[in-house]
Amino acid sequence: MKKVRKKIKIKGIVQGVGFRPFIYRLASKQNLVGWVNNNSQGVIIDIEGESEKISSFLSLINSKSPPLAKIDSIELREVPLKGYDNFSIKQSSTNTEDITLISSDIVTCLDCQEEVKNFNNHRYRYPFTNCTNCGPRYSIIEDLPYDRAVTTMKDFKMCDSCREEYEDPSSRRFHAQPNACPKCGPQLWLTDNLGSELAVKDPLKQAIKLLKQEKLLAIKGLGGFHLACDGKSDTAIKELRARKRRPDKPLAVMMRDREVVKKYCYLNSREEEILTGIRRPILLLKRKNNSLPANISVDNNYLGVMLPYTPLHELLFEEGLEILVMTSANLSGLPLEYRNQGSLDNLKEFADYFLLHDREIKTPVDDSVSRIILGQETLIRRGRGYAPLAIKFAGLKETLACGAELKNSFAIAKKGYLFLSQHLGNISKLESYQNYQEVIKHLKEIYQINPELIAYDLHPEYLTTKFAQSQGGQKVGVQHHHAHLVSCMVENEVSDRVIGLAFDGTGLGIDGRLWGGEFLLCDYTNFKRVGHLEYVKMPGGEQSIKEPWRMAISYLYEAYGDDIELFTELIDIDEERIKKIVKLIKADINSPQTSSMGRLFDAVGVLVALGKFITYEAQVAIKLEASVISNEVGEYDYQIKNNDGHYIVNTTSLIKSIVNDIKLGVNKGVIARKFHNTVIDFSVAICKLVRRDYKINSVALSGGVFQNKILLEGIYQQLIAQDFKVYFHKQIPSNDGGLAVGQLVIANYQKGAKNDVHSNTRKSD
Amino acid sequence: MKIITMAHGSGGKLTEELIEGIFYKSFKNDLLLQANDSTLLSFIKGRLVATTDNFVVKPIFFRGGDIGKLSICGTVNDLLMSGARPLYITVGFIIEEGFEINQLEKIVESMAVTALKAKVKIVSGDTKVVERGSCDGVYINTTGIGVLERNIKLGGARAEVGDKIIINGSIGDHGASIFTQRGELEINSSLQSDCTLLNDLIAEILDNSNKVKVLRDPTRGGLATTLNEIAGQSKVSIKLKEEKLLIRDEVRSLCQITGFDPLFLANEGKVVVVVDNSESNRVLEVMRKNDLGREARVIGEVVEDDNNRVYLETSINGTRIVNALVGELLPRIC
Ligand SMILES: [Fe+3]
Ligand SMILES: [Mg+2]
Ligand SMILES: [Zn+2]
Ligand SMILES: [Zn+2]
């Protein structure tokens, strides 16, 4: 038999996922010799043996790789024989030449779950059980290559039995960096809200007892703290809402298992797959009945549900609890709490007790939120289990894209990859802005990025814009909706010009006005605005977002002029206030113009009496979607004005027909449905006009308004019926959480990146 | 009704009538009556301080003052902020053709009364008349000269970490009052402009403390702009506590309706005092004894941070970064 020796380089998500022991076992089985190690480029294998066995070894790498691994490429090089006498796993070495992908945090695997449930196992009821197939990754990593010494587990010295597992290539815990057991690993304890430890034997059992007594607990989990209470106690939920100053926004829940989920929610097979998968997002599921407390999800017939994803969470349900409210432990606009002391300082008024542990979180990661639309998982919030996202994309310079201000996430690029950070939330406050800067610094250090390009939004008052301006490197301002659409194009691997529909709240346009109902013709470099909603005023600027009834007045004023009598008849607001808002509009006092689709949804939501003020973003618009109950196929009138191939949707007759229906006492759900139909109809109509004008047949859909399932499905289906090719978001959020991807790619293309992306892009997950 | 005509600005007989009959009549003093091309001032011992300002306000007569009073207060207060004793003022008028003479008389009288109170002499002046439509009623320029007699060093660059920020009362009154009186919103508000002279208050502060670092009047651009200037000049950051700010209900409700931010509304009778922590209580007590400082309060402090920013700490919503306003305030919510 002919002997050969090969050097193999494997790139992708291959570290921290049990890849080296897998290679070790594979090589040993085939009697091959040499070694394997990790470096910052990925996994390197030096292997020697009979050529046939090496061939089968190579094919098995591909077909049998560990569940969490994601191979992007395998490079092979034949080298002279060396005469190794065994196969070994070598120490990690550092090499700055290339890049390794970071694995996300992963749900407890079945083997570990078994051990935790098994009375005879020494990890029985141990909340921090993990192995190479599961457990924390991104949230505990301080540096690469991934090794215990550069994670927050470095302070825990493994006991003999853990050490043995860690060093045994045949063990499931071989080089499982966070490996731990009750003897040597992290511990739980319970404190009151002053931080004094409760003298209890079993903090977990005590925590459960307190939850059952309707107490509120701050629970440190994988990527941060949750504020938790019994999901079946409306008293506890009411208290939680009051303390968190969150009167209406739906609360996420964790349910014991899929049987419980099925009891309260509809669950199709695709949903079940995502719900029970390795990433475990909060999944929006349709509620089945009204047996849960009404105050869990006030405005909505959907419920955000997740299953336990660490042994700690599993164990919370061992004494009969079925449902826990598990909401991120932070006040709206402030960053997620993730440090023991920080949470004791900042949450003492919210939680009665704190369930703490001593495994530090290096990088806070919020729970992800997703929804199944058109049979696809579409991410609303990209956090735990999904972050960081790596997209293969050739030809990018080292770049930082700063993102927007609400629902922020940022993106960086290096060596053929584009990385999208986890959801960082609203960063308009100092505390969240500091967190943003820390996470950027952390990822820049891990990947050793020194950005040549800094991409940012055109809005001068975003803190991300101010941050961009404080950075070195060439600054590139990117228009908000262009960035939305390019992020959708990148996700779908489309680089040819498309017709882009960008529907969102507001983003600054290049004419200084606030855009948000946009039809753009765009590619990775440029865009041309070919249509939009007619401008209306936003009386009082941001106040009109917090008080959507002002937008209703603005739309009514557009349609009817100064008709206070009608306005007071339609909107249950004090006449004097209505008059003042009309005066703001007339005198043009702090009333910027907007073409926003979000604001149109707000206005219509107010007209059909779904609320006048909001306590969370897009509340009225969300209620409008939720109120659709009919299969009504009718629609309202609208006009499309053609200004030289620039199509403007005039909403006057739309508003007037809605008002007529309201006066006739037509059911809200019917009006809501007809309104959705109308938006779908004019969107498709403009696509057809633009196709005629420019001979472009592809349409990309982006912007936060496309979180609306009825709208997305409607536009999608109608466009498909008209033979369009349609692209929408799945893994990258359509809201501002996905914006940075577009910013990053546009900045590169505007500054000279000229790659044929068709042959070069490939998603890594 | 007598009105200003182009002839009033021609330098002829009508101009003379205007000067003699209105300006000299109200402003008369030995220096002004020299009536030469320029005025010879007395010997001044000490370092001189100068400032100039143009006053454009609509409405010209407002609750709590008028453009005349404003033009004296503004310049006198600016002189006071450097620790000086105001001495002289020059005045320049640009008047629109058609402006009512009796209104002009009222404005001039109001300036004379204010100058008297401020113990400053109006020593020189000029008037131009412009065609109808070229200006809006009347614009006034005043230039002030004062003398620094105290042995103190004040300046925007002197704030240091640990210093306290004190203000003598509520914010936004002038801006809000002027806005409501323009009548576009037809708000019936009794809110007065805070337009006033700060001579006595400042003298009392400086008589009692030599550890005051900065004095500033937060006029156009409001408190936010003034504090950003100080932060930038001193290379420090400033942290305000939201609950310490005094904002009158009328100002609050105007802001609620319009989306304006009281931090950016103009004040015309306020002083921001940056004082060493060790003397902040003493300064506060002194201020509170004066009528104009009865509502004085510590609103924040200078903090360690090299971003040179102004922060507003709220009790529940975290800390807002208050930037100096550039241009329009556009919504940031997507
Ligand atoms: Fe957006
Ligand atoms: Mg001045
Ligand atoms: Zn496991
Ligand atoms: Zn152990």
UniProtKB/TrEMBL annotation, chain A:
Gene3D superfamilies: 3.30.110.120, 3.30.420.360, 3.30.420.40, 3.90.870.50. Pathway: Protein modification; [NiFe] hydrogenase maturation. Pfam families: Acylphosphatase (PF00708), HypF_C (PF17788), HypF_C_2 (PF22521), Sua5_yciO_yrdC (PF01300), zf-HYPF (PF07503). Coiled coil: none annotated. Residues 201-385 form the YrdC-like domain. It comes from the Bacteria. Residues 5-91 form the Acylphosphatase-like domain. One of its GO terms (biological process) is protein maturation. GO terms for molecular function: acylphosphatase activity; carboxyl- or carbamoyltransferase activity; double-stranded RNA binding; ligase activity; zinc ion binding. InterPro entries: Acylphosphatase-like_dom, Acylphosphatase-like_dom_sf, Acylphosphatase_CS, ATPase_NBD, Carbamoyltrans_HypF-like, Carbamoyltransferase_HypF, DHBP_synth_RibB-like_a/b_dom, HypF_C. Its EC number is 6.2.-.-. This is Carbamoyltransferase.
Automatic annotation (TrEMBL), chain B:
Signal peptide: none annotated. Residues 45-147 form the PurM-like N-terminal domain. It comes from the Bacteria. One of its GO terms (biological process) is protein maturation. Residues 160-312 form the PurM-like C-terminal domain. InterPro entries: HypE (IPR011854), PurM-like_C_dom (IPR010918), PurM-like_C_sf (IPR036676), PurM-like_N (IPR016188), PurM-like_N_sf (IPR036921). CDD domains: HypE. Transmembrane segments: none annotated. SUPFAM superfamilies: PurM C-terminal domain-like, PurM N-terminal domain-like. Belongs to the HypE family. This is Hydrogenase expression/formation protein HypE.
